Amino acid sequence: MSKFMAAPNANANSTSNPNPNNSFEVAQPPNDSISSLSFSPKSNILVATSWDNQVRCWEIQQSGTNLVSQPQAAISHDHPVLCSTWKEDGTTVFSGGCDKQVKMWPLGGQPVTVAVHDAPIKEIAWIPEMSLLVTGSLDKTMKYWDVRQPNPVHTQQLPERCYALSVRYPLMVVGTADRNLIVFNLQNPQTEFKRILSPLKYQTRCVAAFPDQQGFLVGSIEGRVGVHHLDEKQNDKNFTFKCHREGTRIYSVNSLNFHPVHHTLTTAGSDGSFTFWDKDSKQRLKEMSRCNQPIPCSTFNNDGSIFAYAVCYDWGKGAEKHNPDTAKNYIFLHVPQEAEVKRKPRVNTGGNR
User: Fold this and answer.
1) How confident is the model at residue 327, as a pLDDT?
2) Run of H or E residues at 14
3) What are the Cα distances from residue 286, in Å, to 7, 170, 340?
4) Where is this region: Disordered (predicted)?
5) What is the pLDDT, as a whole number, of residue 352?
6) CA 87 to CA 28: how far, in whole Å?
7) pLDDT tens-digit series, residues 167-199
8) What's the pLDDT at 212?
9) pLDDT tens across 125-162, in order?
10) For residue 344, what pLDDT band results from cuts at 50, 70 and 90?
11) Rg (CA), the chain
12) Domain assignment of residue 248, given as a range
């Protein structure tokens, strides 16, 4: 395992403060845990899906040095919603979840069902280069959809339930139960390009394809991230690193995001913190203070000037530990500073992380 050089951190654990980093709070958040966050690829319109069966939309505006959120609209599913994505033109939102269907929501219009599975839909992605929607389900299949047609273009059998999915055309990475990682070249989408066993020893929680399509990140429930290159000639660049740990306590890595400009990355976890990293120089750029609840999901806006993250229960301890009537749910907006997201030259990695 490679070590990351330590960077200054403000990670004094806050036992009662949901917002120790003084981020901007999104108005009128969901009434139950937030499962996904997605920014429009064209504007600062944010969508959140939630376990309260809702898909909500806000417009994020800058007011001086502040960010202000204006609730815009919402739609309902019949059961909890787990995932969301956008069309590349920023006009349409897709959402899927426990009602086993994906709804296509043209903003300002009415949602229509465009995809169905036999079990909850865990992950979705729009592939603009193919004009297709891809859906990954707990029914152990992945399906490609032309949203103008009622039936899938292709159904791909998976070795296990789909837990995570990431697309950077032509690269698509799918993480399933039993630690399978399946790589697809979307120029030949009906055939697996490669299947590997996760370099991490515990259940896969999230994946993120590299912006240059040369590899991917994988995060696990055991506070660890794997950095994997597809070209076997670059195997010496593969490594794993620990994160989201506090003493002997180990927390899940719930979300991985690459900065859209600098291509550094963030991890967010069940310890309630998010951290900025440079995988190429193997440095931790900034570790933020811990919130008083887990961070189940996060995302950057299209130019990387806003980092949105949810603070709420993440179901890591089961339903018996969750009371939706008393739980607090938050969405926060962090404005990254250049030192947090800009790459640094590689230095001696003999540090303590």
Assistant:
1) 84
2) none
3) 6, 31, 6
4) 1-31
5) 46
6) 25
7) 999 999 999 999 999 999 999 999 999 999 999
8) 97
9) 999 999 999 999 999 999 999 999 999 999 999 999 99
10) confident
11) 19
12) 24-316+329-341
Strand partners, 184: 172, 192
Q: Is the peptide bond before 159 cis (omega within 30 degrees of 0)?
A: no
Does 187 reside within a domain?
yes
Q: Are 161 and 138 in contact (CB under 8 A)?
A: yes
Whether pTM > 0.85 for this model: the answer is yes
CA distance 99 to 119: 8
**339 — phi, psi (to 5°)?**
-65, -20
Half-sphere exposure of 175 (CA within 13 A, CB side): 23
348 found inside a domain: no
Structural domains of the chain, count: 1
Written as six digits, the tokens of 248 are 């002997």
Concatenating the DSSP letter of every residue in 82-146 gives EEEEE-TTSSEEEEEETTSEEEEEETTS--EEEEE-SS-EEEEEEETTTTEEEEEETTSEEEEE-
